[in-house]
Amino acid sequence: MYKEANYWTHLESTQGHWHPEFVRQLANQEGAETEDGRAAVITFQDGAKPSARTFSKSRELRRYIDESTLPSSPGEPACRRAFVLEGLPKAFIEVLGSSLCVPPSFFSEHWAHPGQFMSISMAHPPRQYNGGSRFSFYFPRLHWVKIGEGSSNQRDLMYIMPSSINMLLARVNLFGEFRGPFRSDEKLSCWILLLVDPPLKTSVIGVVSSQHQQVEALAVDYQSFEDGDLQSISKGAAGQDGSWYLPIPAADDKQKPQMKSMFDDIINLYPFRQNQSISNPMTITDICRQLVLSAWTARLRFMEVEIIRKQSQMSIAPSMFATSYHDWLDASWTRPWKSRDFGGLMDQIAEAWESEAWETLRDTLQTLKKKVNIMSEAYMQAASVRESIAANKQAQHVGYLTSLATLFVPMSFIAAVFSMGGDYAAGQKSFHVFWAISVPVGAMAFCAFFFGASMLKSMHTASLLLGPQIRYALNELAKIDAELKTLAKKISGQ
Predict the structure, then answer these.
(1) Can you give the residue range of the structural domain that contains 425?
(2) Distance of CA 345 to the CA centre of its chain
(3) Which of 385, 409, 435 is the last residue of a domain?
(4) d(CA 329, CA 376)
(5) Are 408 and 441 in contact (CB under 8 A)?
(6) For the chain, how far is it from start to end, CA to CA, in angstroms?
(7) Is residue 116 located within the same domain as residue 222?
(8) Do 378 and 427 sit in the same domain of this protein?
(9) Looking at the domain assignment, is residue 398 inside a domain?
(10) How far apart are CA 475 and CA 469, in angstroms?
(11) Same domain, 143 and 53
(12) What is the three-state SS of the chain?
């Protein structure tokens, strides 16, 4: 306990200036809040698969560490350990920090998310911030949940999850307003200790309304989408199922990562990793590297969803302005991967599965770039077609106005003739003759201009149908006429 008190004093004095909110948040933790988290230790031995042990109380973790520091018995196999901490509860920080000599800045930098929470879309790519011997990976993540109704009708876009870390959540507008999942920015920090963010809890607090609302977890298939095939494609592309992890035996299929709790996923994945020598302590980071690949895979899928959305908008509705999709994609996340992004934990990619995974991601990225180029070319052609369609519609409207004007021309001409004077002028006793003449003439003009083509076509069709019958009747009449003439000659000769 004395070591832990000294560690807290050291953390408070060194981090109070650089991360005052983090120190204040730890100092305000009381009672159960200091234990709001979990810790685990993963043991590695030669010739055996890793084993994991989870601790829900700091005193259990303290007892385990104290027992581990005792001299080992002769013949006991050598082992290495990696610790995992969920959240930043004060009691666990004091135990792990004082026992493992963890720099206080490692905890404070994990709590403070770099940058601003700028948007509610999946616009930010995974990023790495720490160098040297520490590694910090910052990436967006989805939570498929349903938000309970609050006491007010106000709907929040931003929420806060009550926990020991600074976690903001936002409604994702990728699938339509207020219909998408939650999005949070989470972190994975690695030293000899892995720091992971806690999973989404059962309640959140609205940033604007300050109301507590219940959260109900949903399966991805439960989501309702209104736009048919487009949203189905988006749902499939946005799924985080195809993560980069080692194959799980069929008998243990239930141990697959659920992509809900990073802590549980790490604990479940390590027992299935291949046996490796403990001579290189950095080999324990392979699961972390798989999580990095998983985050980049999810990022690529969301970029694909955005491309599908923009392609759909371009095909079914006119765009308000032209966009250089290629530049937009290139500036968004196509940054070359560098070995220093692992913070010195690995000098180069040495395993075949990892190299193949990055090659696959790069090939997929090139495919998306080609698709964006095709979309850009199609957009220019579609814009020209839309302009032609708009011009044709305007000309058609002008034609309708012209045809409508021709309806009143005969009436105007007849009215001008009758208005010259006499009994047919306006207001005279024979003015009704104007209506008797102009209305039929106007009706004929209306039919001629609006139905003339169809009437001519009908007359032509009727002539084609009646033509043979008319010719037959004419021939019969000609025969009768010839017979009558012959009969008349005979009568005159007698």
Answers:
(1) 419-488
(2) 33
(3) 385
(4) 12
(5) no
(6) 156
(7) yes
(8) no
(9) no
(10) 10
(11) yes
(12) CHHHHHHHHHHHHHHCCCCHHHHHHHHCCCHHHHHCCEEEEEEEECCEEEEEEEECCHHHHHHHHHHHCCCCCCCCCCEEEEEEEECCCHHHHHHHHHHHCCCHHHHHHHHCCCCCCCCCCCCCCCEECCCCCCEEEEEEEEECEEECCCCCCCCCCEEECCCCCCCEEEECHHHCCCCCCEEEEEEEEECCEEEECCCCCCEEEECCCCCEEEEEECCHHHCCCCCCHHHHHHHHHHCCCCCCCCCCCHHHHHHCCCCCCHHHHHHHHHHHCCCCCCCCHHHHHHHHHHHHHHHHHHHHHHHHHHHHHHHHHHHHCCCCCCCCHHHHHHHHHCCCCCHHHHCCCCCCCCCHHHHHHHHHHHHHHHHHHHHHHHHHHHHHHHHHHHHHHHHHHHHHHHHHHHHHHHHHHHHHHHHHHHCCCHHHCCCCCCCHHHHHHHHHHHHHHHHHHHHHHHHHHHHHHHHHHHHHHHHHHHHHHHHHHHHHHHHHHHHHHC
CA dist 145 and 148 (Å) reads: 10
Radius of gyration of the chain (CA): 41
* Residue 403 resides in a domain: no
Q: What is the pLDDT of residue 35?
A: 92
Q: Are residues 353 and 480 in the same domain?
A: no
User: Residues 293, 155: one domain?
Assistant: yes
Residues of the chain with pLDDT under 50: 115-121, 153, 175-178, 221-248, 250, 316-326, 328-348, 462, 464-466, 494
The pLDDT assigned to 279 comes to 64
Please state, as a whole number, how many other Cβ atoms lie within 10 Å of the Cβ of residue 41. Answer: 17
Angle between helices 2-15 and 20-27 (to 10 degrees): 150
Are β-strands 203-206 and 158-160 bridged in parallel, bridged antiparallel, or unpaired?
antiparallel
CA distance 308 to 368: 11
Residue 443 belongs to a domain: yes
Of 364, 385, 406, the domain-final residue? 385
Token digits of residue 261: 């709790």
Instruction: Give me the number of domains the chain comprises.
Output: 2
Residues 55 and 61: their CA atoms lie apart, in Å, by 6
pLDDT 10s digits, 388-429: 888 888 887 777 667 666 666 665 666 566 555 666 566 666
Say how many C-beta atoms besides its own lie within 10 A of residue 261's C-beta: 18
Residue 182: Cβ-neighbour burial (10 angstroms; 0-12, 13-18, 19+): buried
The two tokens of residue 149 are 């109704």
* 47 dihedral zone (left: phi>0; alpha: psi -120 to 50; beta): left
Say whether both 176 and 245 belong to one domain.
yes
Are 169 and 182 in contact by the 8 Å Cβ rule? The answer is: yes
Kindly state whether residue 221 falls inside one of the protein's structural domains. Answer: yes
**Cα 5 to the center of its chain, rounded Å:** 47
